[in-house]
Amino acid sequence: MVNDQPPTKKKVQFSTWYKVAPITGLLFILYLARPSSYVFPFGYEVHNDTADWHRSFFGIADWLLCGSILCGLITKKIRPPEIAYWYCLCFLVLVFLSILPIITDDYSASFNLIQHAVRLTFLFLFGAGLVRVCGIQGASQLLYAGYCILAISAMVVLAMVLPAFHRIFASAMTVASFAQISAIVALFAIHLKHLKMAAWAMVFLVLTFSLSSALAFSICLLAFPANSIDSRISVQTATRSRLYVFLGLLTFIVACVIINAYSDRGFNTRIDHALTLHGRVEIWQYGIELIRDHESGWFGVGFGRAPSFLRFRDFSLPGEPALYYSNFHSIILESLISMGIFAAPIFMLFIAFFFRAYKHRHYLEASVISFFMMTQSVDFTLYRPKEETIFAFVLGVLLAHSKKDLLHGAGIIKNMNGPESLLANNMA
């Protein structure tokens, strides 16, 4: 008897991260679980740092994590798309060119700055490679696991600092960076329909009292509804998208009310700081002046060396104690001052990636990239160990999951046949 039914299309089964890279995944989680005393030297305070560069604090945990990722890349357990390697190569070349003039003058600082680039590169490749093997669901599982560890450490820290300080933040992180990561996890969970994790992350976002992250989160939900896969917007999808927008705006409103009523940075008690965005206006003006007057030069002062202009500058208001900043509170100013024109290709890649994702209605990528750029433009945190680790991982995940265009550009799909081709198409 002849079977006239057409053959069914074989569905690709992705592995989970703990089957593909268990050691690397575990090291990633343990890296995020480290308390401040294991990340920073005893008695070290970031805001009182007088170094001319952003210290990398590259230690044993970094060597183990990056070494494990390198082993995974060599053994093909972790397989990033070819274009990810090209991005990392371009980034490393730009970093090297920016610090080339200071290598002979300050070798130790140059080596420390290169460690920043190494950490960012390896975690970016890890995120991109994990998506190709485990799919976006498997990579998001590792992201959620790492975030849960951060959330637990945040509750422990909050219990230790109450009642002197009431804004929640994870160990060895800032309030701003924990709020940013909470919002990014919430965006992942919403677009991937993991609503319990989304609710969990949004609760912690509110508890940080971070107005900038709450506002950026609401904008992303309003601009990029969670219908990135199906291009046809059904009534159910439109209703669900409106619900997400409402939840985002509600989060923002609640955060505003709580900050205004209870925070030590409330608008009623410190209106002078509110009008200057808590000192950001002055530091941004100073950064713009440095660029305008060419004090940082066309090629910058070296990757990660923007703090050299902040070391002895006091930004306190009249009648208040001295106030020094460790960064310019803007990734744009930090990049232009430290790398000069070498920062242009990096920003161009971010812009191109965003518009390509938006054009193809890949709203997960578009929302996270736009949120990242908005928040990093007013709260720069991409210079600390945990922040670099998780942000680089997320960017790698977004790249590998973005769309077929990136895989076509790397020559992957057109050279595949059979199950591998189906795998690549499902990833895109």
Could you characterize the architecture of this molecule?
With 428 residues, the protein is an all-alpha fold. The chain has one domain (17-427). The protein contains 18 helices and no strands. The chain has helices at 17-20, 22-33, 36-39, 60-74, 82-99, 107-161, 175-191, 195-207, 211-223, 235-262, 271-275, 280-292, 331-339, 344-359, 363-376, 385-401, 404-409, 419-427. Helix 5 (82-99) crosses helix 6 (107-161), helix 7 packs antiparallel against helix 8 (195-207) and helix 9 (211-223) runs antiparallel to helix 15 (363-376). The longest helix is centred in the N-terminal third of the chain and has 55 residues, at 107-161. The chain starts with 16 loop residues before the first helix and ends with a helix.
**Uncertain regions spanning at least 5 consecutive residues:** 6-13, 228-232, 265-271, 404-428
State which percent range the strand residues make up: under 5%
- Number of alpha- plus pi-helical segments: 18
Shape: globular
End-to-end separation? 39 Å
Query: How many domains, in number, for the residues?
Result: 1
- Determine the structural class based on helices, strands and strand pairing: mainly alpha
Profile the largest sheet: none
Helix content range: 55-70%
Task: Let me know the number of strands.
Answer: 0
Order of helices and strands: HHHHHHHHHHHHHHHHHH
Radius of gyration: 22 Å
Query: Mean pLDDT, as a whole number?
Result: 82
